[in-house]
Design the sequence.
């Protein structure tokens, strides 16, 4: 009973390619799940917009603009989902660089890295 109520379970998913670095931190305390998603653009172009999907489960976000020179951070702190059921998540990202007409897209596998129960 002590472990369930007082020791949070945390899981991290990581993935990257030549253009993007993605990190999802997921935490479960009791029945309350929370997570943060960090997306970093590693390229040198200006980004006009970004959309991404995470599978499974299906989760979709549209980012009107990247913050802090290609960095995006989203956090859900209370009564959120908890990512831990899959060894890998598939991250599908679509973006458009400023002053370009075509969109670019990539699939990035995110690998699960279990972390300590007491962090």
Sequence:
């Amino acid at each position: 009973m002590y472990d369930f109520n007082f020791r949070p379970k945390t899981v991290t998913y990581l993935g990257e390619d030549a253009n993007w670095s993605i990190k999802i931190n997921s935490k479960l305390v009791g029945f309350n799940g929370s997570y943060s998603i960090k997306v970093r653009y590693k390229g040198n172009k200006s980004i006009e917009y970004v959309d991404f999907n995470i599978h499974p489960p299906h989760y979709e976000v549209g980012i009107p603009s990247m913050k802090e020179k290609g960095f995006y951070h989203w956090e859900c702190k209370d009564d959120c989902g908890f990512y831990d059921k899959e060894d890998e998540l598939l991250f599908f990202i679509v973006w458009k660089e400023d002053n370009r007409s075509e969109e670019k897209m990539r699939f990035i596998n995110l690998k699960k890295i279990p972390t300590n129960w007491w962090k």
Observations:
- Helices lie at 2-6.
- The beta strands are 9-16, 20-29, 32-41, 47-55, 59-63, 71-80, 88-97, 104-114.
